[in-house]
Amino acid sequence: MDLQLRHLRALVAVVDTGTFTDAAAELGVSQAAVSRSIAALEEALGVRVLQRTTRHVTLTGTGTQVLAGARRVLDEIAHLGRLAERQRTELRIGYAWAALGKHTRRLQRTWAALHPGTPLVFVHTNTPSAGLSDGTADVAVVRRALDDPRFATAHIGSEARCAAVATDNPLARRRTLHVSDLTRYPVAIDARTGTTTLDLWAAGPRPSNVRTTHGVDEWLLLIAAGQAVGVTSEATANQNPRPGVAYRTLRQAPRIDVWLAWWRDDPPAHLADLVRLSRAAYTPATAS
């Protein structure tokens, strides 16, 4: 089937304008070219899509269905074009729980000074690849290893861990906590995109109850209600303050590594600058 986009565009133009003459003017081609495109479309499909009279052009019953399909195809083509244009005009950074926490604004300011024509757009998406797999993001902030050969990564810094407890929990009255302080409470864990696993309690008793969550908002709601406690990155505490939730620094807890990730065979423009500026944003925290 030799079906081409120009055939679909001709059909849509004829229907929308009402005549072959007006369709030709809209498409910037001759009326004969529009006629040839419609004839080629009908030949490729093996059906009549338009009824022509000296005064009117109307769709056949099959043509109505073909027109709907043609509009969908052309819409998808336009969408692909917008995706490509967006990549040229902005850089989308995906994250599952937090962007760069307190370092986000510093990165945005330094990036804007260096690349004023290509804004950084941060996109929240609760997927393991933080939006890379489905094309939501050009680059992703990840805090757990991506065991996928399609993606390349660069380490940019590390963050302290925090406990999150309800503000009316007795633990909230303390400035710092230890992971062992949490074991007598249900612990909320997002195994899909979170940074906390039961391995955090490998050296001592583990929590007796785990509440499974699916994203930061559900996690926070559970903690604010006093139904669980949680452990997360300091970036979550900075980016997601919530009434009813108190964040407390965890003592002697391993830090969380932070990476940028991107498609190995399709790195975005200005990637080297993004990695460099992201590492610089973390420098005061990692040096302290």
Write structural notes for this entry.
The N and C termini lie far apart (66 Å). With 288 residues, this protein is of the alpha/beta class. Helix 1 packs across helix 2 (20-27). The chain has helices at residues 5-17, 20-27, 31-45, 61-89, 104-114, 216-224, 234-239, 271-287; strands at 50-52, 57-59, 91-95, 120-124, 139-142, 151-159, 161-166, 176-177, 187-189, 210-212, 230-233, 245-250, 256-263. The chain is built from eight helices and 13 strands. 35% of the residues are buried. The strands form four sheets. The chain has a five-stranded mixed sheet with strand order 4-3-5-13-6. The chain has a four-stranded mixed sheet with strand order 8-12-7-11. The model has no long low-confidence stretch (mean pLDDT 91).
How are the secondary structure elements laid out?
Elements: H1 5-17, H2 20-27, H3 31-45, E1 50-52, E2 57-59, H4 61-89, E3 91-95, H5 104-114, E4 120-124, E5 139-142, E6 151-159, E7 161-166, E8 176-177, E9 187-189, E10 210-212, H6 216-224, E11 230-233, H7 234-239, E12 245-250, E13 256-263, H8 271-287
Parallel strand pairs: 3-4, 3-5, 8-12, 9-10
Antiparallel strand pairs: 1-2, 5-13, 6-13, 7-11, 7-12
Structural descriptors:
alpha/beta, 4-stranded mixed beta sheet
